[in-house]
Write a structure and sequence with these properties.
3-stranded parallel sheet, 3 strands, 52% helix
């Protein structure tokens, strides 16, 4: 469930009786015996404390029954914007492969992707394996909440890995819940402090899942790239407006074209030929995706970030070759030591 207002408001530590009752009702809706409820706060703990000083806050589990509170350190829009800026600067420079690798690492982008995926993994595992309910929130509910709620549903439910399901997911968790596409993607107007690659980061996370589970998605990475390109092109009204109220007031569904119609008209370019059809949710959780978030398993999305750089693919390939050579060398050394011992 996507978030509600945090229970404690500001430094005065005001409690919200309405929020406490709502959380209790959500917890009791789970009929599993001895089930608990997790409140997942996607802000770093220090950020949550700073937000409290600004009039917002976070929950105190002492005022709840069978409720646990857990923080995940997903950074704010400003940190993500700076990280993407560093990544792009690195990829645009004509530098040596070793400097390229160091620059990508120092940008922190893949580290941020890792934290977002780890949060989604925790949520999906808690729901599917442990049988507990989860409530997700951040500061406002339209950035980190949208990311982690969407990704956890993709991990949980094969439907959201289909073309129809993914469209529903974006419509539901991003458009209907009010992700500020105009501000975050600098559409129509520009406030530099509001721009941040939040939706792009979500798509990057989906790419990581596609890479690790190549038969589980009906659409390929070209679909993700095209969706982002059409979002930033301004050709379609789907993402214009920061919320449903804006889009309704401007009558965008009547006055503009939908990006989904365009994508469906070109669907042959976006079909994954390796997709395994007929996947269904099973009682043994066999359809739950459990991605690895080890550094070696998270890749730079070259088709998105390096598509105009003829050298970038070569640099990435060299990175893989160097890593593979290092692993082979280490294995050879271990085998040699084993042989000596024998």
């Amino acid at each position: 469930s996507s978030g509600i207002n945090a229970e404690y408001g500001g430094i005065t530590m005001n409690r919200s009786e309405f929020d406490e009752k709502m959380v209790s009702c959500i917890r009791m809706a789970n009929k599993k015996e001895k089930s608990k409820m997790y409140i997942v706060d996607t802000r770093p703990k220090v950020n949550a404390m700073v937000n409290r000083a600004g009039g917002k806050g976070y929950e105190d589990v002492k005022n709840y029954v069978d409720v646990l509170y857990k923080n995940f350190p997903i950074q704010n829009i400003h940190v993500m914007r700076e990280s993407m800026s560093k990544l792009r600067n690195t990829l645009e420079m004509a530098i040596s492969p070793s400097a390229h690798i160091s620059g990508v690492e120092e940008s922190g982008w893949l580290s941020h992707v890792k934290v977002v995926l780890n949060t989604a993994k925790f949520i999906s595992n808690t729901v599917s394996v442990e049988g507990h309910s989860v409530l997700i929130h951040c500061s406002d509910g339209w950035d980190r909440t949208a990311q982690t709620s969407s990704l956890s549903q993709i991990l949980l439910d094969p439907y959201y890995r289909t073309l129809n399901g993914f469209q529903v997911l974006v419509e539901k968790e991003w458009l209907a819940f009010g992700h500020k596409f105009v501000d975050r993607c600098s559409l129509l107007c520009r406030n530099p402090d509001e721009v941040s690659p939040i939706f792009l980061q979500f798509l990057d996370c989906v790419f990581q899942l596609q890479n690790q589970f190549p038969t589980h998605f009906e659409f390929n990475e070209n679909y993700l790239v095209e969706l982002y390109d059409m979002l930033t092109s301004g050709k379609f009204g789907t993402f214009l407006g920061n919320n449903e109220k804006d889009r309704t007031r401007q009558r965008l569904s009547e006055r503009t074209f939908s990006v989904w119609g365009y994508l469906w008209e070109n669907i042959t370019k976006f079909i994954n030929p390796y997709f395994e059809h007929g996947a269904e949710i099973k009682a043994d959780n066999s359809q739950l995706l459990r991605p690895s978030t080890e550094d070696r398993d998270l890749l730079l999305w070259t088709k998105m970030y390096c598509r105009y750089d003829l050298c970038c693919e070569a640099k990435t390939a060299l990175d893989i070759d160097v890593e593979t050579s290092s692993e082979l060398k280490a294995v050879t050394e271990r085998l040699s030591q084993t042989t000596v011992e024998m």
